[in-house]
TrEMBL record:
Signal peptide: none annotated. It comes from the Eukaryota. PROSITE patterns: RCC1_2, RCC1_3. It comes from Micromonas pusilla. Pfam families: RCC1 (PF00415). RCC repeats lie at residues 6-50, 51-102, 103-157. The lineage of its organism: Eukaryota, Viridiplantae, Chlorophyta, Mamiellophyceae, Mamiellales. InterPro entries: RCC1/BLIP-II, Reg_chr_condens, Ub_ligase/GEF_domain. This is Uncharacterized protein. Keywords: Repeat.
Length: 190
């Protein structure tokens, strides 16, 4: 949890950590100026007021964005985004997102079911990658919602695109049970 002063408190167990679970909130040392925080299934992403993105926890699928799979007990700077101008961060089960001031969306982590928006490429991404199909259309992303196995993006025109696993109709646009790594528009009823 990030408080109103930019400090972060955590409790419970950090996935992959050898440390004993914290039974009460404890201030996370060495991290200040946090303006946004997102928690995945077993990892966390923070955005600092200087635009730096930090990640920690379980990184088995690259969801920490550090270039190699592995776990981190304490926050580490996601260097690949250091000059990107990030203004928002999001976390899904095993993937993460960052949105820049220029409205570019980056995703990284587990690629299974196409949840990273890279078309037929379902490989895990250890570093942030642009959402290929959406960006080629000139779409400017303003927000993202990441589920366990799918992703939805909102653009500046209010259009929602989705991609990833579609069991139980979670993409809102393709036949139930199908998955797609290609972002596509969700059409809402009038």
């Amino acid at each position: 949890v990030a408080d109103g002063t930019g400090e972060v408190y955590q409790w419970g167990q950090i996935a992959g950590s050898e440390k004993a679970p914290a039974r009460a909130p404890a201030k996370l040392r060495g991290i200040r100026g946090v303006v946004a925080l997102a928690a995945g299934a077993f990892h966390a992403i923070a955005l600092q007021d200087d635009g730096r993105v930090l990640s920690w926890g379980n990184g088995d699928y690259g969801q920490l964005g550090l270039g190699l799979p592995g776990n981190e007990d304490a926050p580490v700077v996601v260097e690949a985004l250091s000059r990107a101008g990030v203004v928002a961060v999001r976390a899904g089960g095993w993937h993460s997102a960052a949105i820049t001031a220029g409205r570019v969306c980056y995703l990284w982590g587990r690629g299974e079911y196409g949840r990273l928006g890279q078309g037929d490429d379902c490989a895990d991404k250890q570093r942030p990658v642009e959402v290929a199909e959406v960006m080629s259309e000139g779409t400017r992303v303003v927000d993202a919602a990441l589920g366990g196995t799918h992703t939805c993006l909102l653009d500046e025109d209010g259009v929602v695109t989705s991609f990833g696993r579609n069991s139980l109709g979670r993409l809102g646009r393709v036949a139930d049970g199908k998955w797609t790594g290609t972002p596509g528009r969700v059409n809402f009823p009038p």
